[in-house]
Structure prediction request, 562 residues.
Amino acid sequence: MKQILLILALLLAPLTALAQEETVVAGLSQNEVSITANFNGSEILIFGAVERYTPVPEGNPLEVIITIEGPDRPVTVRRMDRRYGIWMNTEAVEVDAAPTFYAVATTNPFREVISDTEDLRHRISIPRAIRAVGTETEHQRDFTDAVIRIRTNEDLYQVLEGAVTLRNETLFNTSFRMPANLVEGDYTARIFLTRGREVVSSYETAITVRKVGLERMIYTLAHERPLVYGLLSLAIAIAAGWLASAVFRYIRMGG
Amino acid sequence: MQIYLPIAEVSVNAFLLLGLGGLVGILSGMFGVGGGFLLTPLLFFIGIPPAVAVATEANQIVASSFSGVLAHFKRKTVDLRMGVVLLIGGLAGAALGVQVFNALRAIGQVDLLVRLCYVVFLGIIGALMFVESLRAIRRSKATAGAPPPRRHHRGWIHALPFKMRFRTSGLYLSVIPPLLVGLFVGILAAIMGVGGGFIMVPAMIYILGMPTKVVVGTSLFQIIFVTAFSTLLHATTNYTVDMILAVLLLIGGVVGAQVGARIGVKLKAEQLRILLAIMVLGVCGKLALDLLLQPSELFTLGAASGH
Prediction:
């Protein structure tokens, strides 16, 4: 009897494993965003399919969550208060790391597609993506909330519930609109498949955001050779000043 | 046409910047002021980070002052000796001002300081100019074109030691007051991102007693060096000078200045001054309201101070 059970278990093991086996295959419309002089934001299309060797499992429907995250930077959040009749900064809180850009798109309302525990583990929702020490108190939370509110107003943080289209529990796609005020760096795109609010598979890929051409040159010069850059700026200013005066003197003499 | 500014890291409309530069250029050509006091708050308003606005504005003023001073050299209305004395004070002031700016930026009070400076100085200068030009208009109506009585400055300024002769200005006076004026304007130039002409010009006339015809040229002469120096300091310590922003502003600025100079010729001096006074008071009032009224967003984000 024991032997039969063992054989059964051995036979079923790969099957159950296969039943869990739903993996993401995905692609991006572009893996590189170039910030040129006339950069005005960028649209990124993310699409993919769910790969599985068994029929679509019964029960909880498949959900897809897609995130794009910019490089983390520390942020100082300041609050204004009225002192001596005028509004001034009175209190500052440092947030250790907040993504400079964060967009999350889902197939359904956020709370329906993922549980809190899974959100905490994978840091998917915006508040989870921000790391701050001691955000447990109500007071501290005001400051992290302010980061989210301000960046959401600037389109730097986006929650796009229902923006992912999923067909036949297999094909999915969505698009993100990245605003013009992007910080350069390595961005990460993540795709999570969930069933019953649990993550069953995930996929990660990188998007590079870089200044190119003139923008690259100016930025590099300003940070690596600040003195040369400063002198060059002055030279341009003086040349422009001289040129303007010369041109208008010529016009005045002519006219 | 949107253009991405590499240092400010924001995307703005290039024509908006050209227009702002041009508008302020017209005003500066009409009134003979640098226009930095108007342009810097306008740059804040369109979303340029304050640190970048202040540093880049300094660079832009170098261009417009250089363009202006060339004309004054031709007319020999630059008091080089006075300019150099003011400059020594000015450079020391600019160095001090950038230090103050950085220290306050670290504790998050730089916006407040810049705004307070604007409110206080624009308020004082605007009110003085307004009253003075009103009086001048009334006087010119009463006595129909009689020249205003020239003031003679005697007293404590002439009791100070280290006297020096300033030929072009026709003055014999201690170097202490010009050094102090230079120092003070240098500090303000670095903090407010302005040339300081709107403070320097009245100070030269009313405190130092310089003749009006050499005041503008001499002021421009020393402003070039002070703002060039603060540009370099901002570029090397904060990396906040945005070359593309500066170029767009100065193209608009130098063209506007020439247009403004022509409009200015057609208006009477008192009318010009009263217009300028109203404008200065307007900017001052707007900034004061911002300080007094509750802002819609109480929180602001800044790059971490990195300590």
Summary: The CA atoms of residues 83 and 185 of chain B lie 13 Å apart.
